[in-house]
Amino acid sequence: MGRYIVHRLLVMIPTLIAISIVVFTIINLPPGNYFTSYIAELQASGQKADLVRIHFLEQQYGFDRPLWQQYLYWVGGLLHGDMGYSFLFNEPVNQVIGDRLLLTFIVSFTTIIFTYLVAFPIGVYSATHQYSWSDHSLTLLGFLGLATPNFLLALVLLYLANVYFGISIGGLMDPHYLDQPWSWGKAASVLAHLWIPVIVIGLGGTAAMIRRLRANLLDELQKQYVVTARAKGLPPLKLLFKYPLRMALNPFISDIGSLLPQVISGAVIVSVVMSLPTTGPMLLAALRSQDMYLAGSFLMFLAFMTVVGVLLSDLALAALDPRIRLQAGRRQ
Amino acid sequence: MSSKSLLLLENSEKRRNGSRLSPGRHRGKCAHFRLFPEFLPSRVAYSAGFAARRRLGQALRLRPRAIPGVALLLFLALFGAAQARLVETPYFAAATASGRLPAIGERVPQQPAVARSGTPGVPGGTLHMLMASPHDTRMMVVYGYARLVAYTPWLELVPDILASVDVADGRVFTLHLRKGMKWSDGHPFTAEDFRYWFKDVAQNPKLSPAGLPIELLPRGEVPRFEVLDETTVRYSWTQPNPLFLPSLAGPDPLYIYAPAHYLKQFHKKYADKTHLATLIKQYRVRNWAALHNKMDGSYRNNNPDLPSLEPWILKTPLPAPLIVFERNPYYYRIDEAGHQLPYIDRVELTLADSRIIPAKTGAGESDLQARYLNFDNYTFLKRGEERNRYHVRLWRTGPGSEWALYPNLNTEDPVWRGLMRDLRFRRALSLAVDRHEINQVIYFGLGIEGQNTLLPQSPLYRPEYRSAWAQYDLDDANRLLDLIGLKRGSGGIRQLPDGRPAEIIVEDNGETSEQSDVLELIRDSWRQLGIRLFAKPSQLTLFRHRVFSGAAVMSLDKGIENGLATAEMPPWELAPTTQQQLEWPKWGQYFETKGKAGEPPDLPSAIRLKNLYQQWLAATGHDQHIAIWREMLKIWADEVYSIGTVAGIPQPIVVSDRLRNVPEKGIYNWDPGAYFGIYKPDRFWFASPVPSAARAASAAAHR
């Protein structure tokens, strides 16, 4: 097992290097750089760009050097934990991301918990009551959630929440809490604003999860060991939770790999529509304005989280499912 | 226009002329100055201003040397009387009582500017506005509009921060500062601040590698700068420099002064070496010049420590989701009652995504909002008026055309380039645009149809500029195309000389869907000319890149920026002067870079325009400026370099019901205008100011 982990950790290095090259190349593919798009934006709105200052910055940040040198400069910084400087926010990238990470975690964790809380009971119920009236109606609901565009739902809920509950539109708290330290009032304001993004982001995921759990569970319920256990007179609930449900859980554990980056990036489109102070809109803004270091470093951070997440989920699977563990042992 | 409004117009002109001491001296300027009454911001409110100016007439001062036409209204303050009546600002009452801040008499200049427009108000309150980008702090410099000289709502250039300006022959400018005026940190604002900028910033090769800004270099000539005394400086050239004063009054002005006492600590010449070295390390910059650059930035407005002259000064270290501005305790303007302006104590900018700003505004979260609101938000905003206690006003916008088509005369494709340079082709395309339909379908008929040229509010306007080749006439258009020899091929589509079908790809920056809507309508009418139009929305940077390089054949963008120009404003938009001009980017670039890049113009009419522009720069008198403008406008109209559609599209302005002195009707324009700037937001005030927390509570209870 130890050797396995070391092996996996070593494989991560070339993977990350490859990702960093791809990320850097793609960000630099469009013509120009942050400054040219900034100048374009200024001039399009009739303002004059301070070309001298911009030329100055370009030199200072090495935009006049060849691309490979810029790449090495960036990667070198990453290794020291220096993610570079965000031109868009006029701040080191670490700080830009750091400010937003906490709220992103809150939104994402609440969403995941919401998804699990809703999806699990429904999934189990509709699998055990297959093709019943209630299964059909729950399925219909799930499909509705899957089919409604998230951003549309977000807009509708925002409007209704504002008209009926007086909650300010967009953001995660009332504007007058923005510059204040954390307090009960602020936390309450966050909770009052949190439910909309949680429902909106959660609904899409919930529907997908219900369908998957139902399908997995149905597979298991047909199997002979279930029939045997039933024939032996095991109580239905105990039977369900002890055997088929545990089997049906495997896909969820392997999902943890993709959950980790999701928790950090948040749901981009919904966050943009709802103007949430999370990392999603930041990434979008960075990509649009070619804020190279911010976009690149954040994408690298996501890539790192994905790689780590996959490793963790593999380890968790091995720990939870003896079959996987034993097969892995046999191959070695 | 109805006869009634014409009458009003006449009256308003009479009244305006009546307020002048010596109309003979300003001849021309007033006679050509026309404003439609509907654009006079809140006529009642401003009549007080007229009366005041009539009184002031006796004090109006124009030095004998001053040339006629440079109509600078010189506000002489009635300082003796005003000073006696100064009222302490409640916001600073505690600070002055405890001695942390000097009393108001010490804070305002000995000759404060006395604001007389609008109704006198009550100090206090917090103004909430929504912004989308951390860079939007500069909007407070635009709205604040404290300038050395500034435009009035009637587009006259008057001294603002300056007590007065003397201009001789259009080339010697003597600026008189207000005695006793101070920066926002209490340090005196003097000639030293001008000297420091001119000698140590603008002419320091490290700080300004490109040297002096172009506005100070008529034909490359460096001005002679003199400090006459503590509060008087003079810039003189041997030839006229008409760009000088307008550039000081811009929304994004040319700063010819800098807070020397603050910036010297970052300047190698003045700073202590070891201290500077620690600062460079602390801010992680490369050298002292980078540090100076970072700390200076009056327009960027992102350094809370940088002293300022604006009505509100930044208080929040950036970046922050909520940006707070506080009133400048040393502001130079007062009202008739002796209150120091601004009336409003604090301004809070909340950052939100630009796409959600209309929704937030509609929910009553902004007291004054126009930025990020579009005409298509109007109905939604209107619906929230009652519930959220605001009103939506419609102001006119300033561009010469909301959207204009730009045939790219520098396109790479030789066949298309030939056609685009063919006057008949451009005219035919223009004749086949149904402007009335665009106006009705997209703008509810509220726009002004016609070419991309000056607006009726401009004193230089003539109806024929706007109507030239702008009537919808398919027969004429088809005849012109037949004359060129473009034969119709299969499906009625005309063929280019090399046999390709005439398919024009019109590129736009993809920022709004309105652009696609306009192109959709034009496509239908061009189809009847036998020309196919394809719209290609792209992304801003890419779009401009393609136009500049000549990859794009035709583009759609805003019309000319300044549809309100007066003869004193440079007519650069009508001549190939910069790469930004989508009709001839390479010719513009050639001019801009003095021939280092781009191509020299080779159409006689474009060369003529360029020469006229240069003549305008060298001209001295108002009459010469007018004559040159007229000729350029005429060529511009004849040649149809850009195809205008509809102009003057209303801009929704959301104003809280408690906010006073915001004009009912106004012009929302960048330059001249500075958006709210020319209406001087330091005069805006809140009726019955309620603290924001109480306001939120009452709003919640209301719901």
Strand fraction of chain A equals under 5%
Helix content of chain A: over 70%
- Number of DSSP-assigned strands of chain B: 25
User: β content of chain B, as a range?
Assistant: 5-15%
Share of residues in helices of chain B: 25-40%
What is the mean pLDDT of chain A? 81
Order of helices and strands of chain A: HHHHEEHHHHHHHHHHHH
As a whole number of angstroms, the C-alpha radius of gyration of chain B is: 26 Å
Low-confidence stretches of chain B: 1-83, 691-703
Q: Give a short account of the largest sheet of chain A.
A: 2 strands, antiparallel
- Name the shape of chain B in a single word: globular
- The N- and C-terminal alpha carbons of chain B lie at a distance of 44 Å
Number of helices of chain A: 16
Q: Looking across the biggest beta sheet of chain A, what order are the strands in? A: 1-2
Oligomerization status of the protein chains: heterodimer
Major β-sheet annotation of chain B: 5 strands, mixed
Find the biggest chain interface: A-B, 47 and 48 residues
* Radius of gyration of chain A, in angstroms, nearest whole number: 24 Å
- The assigned structural class of chain B equals alpha+beta
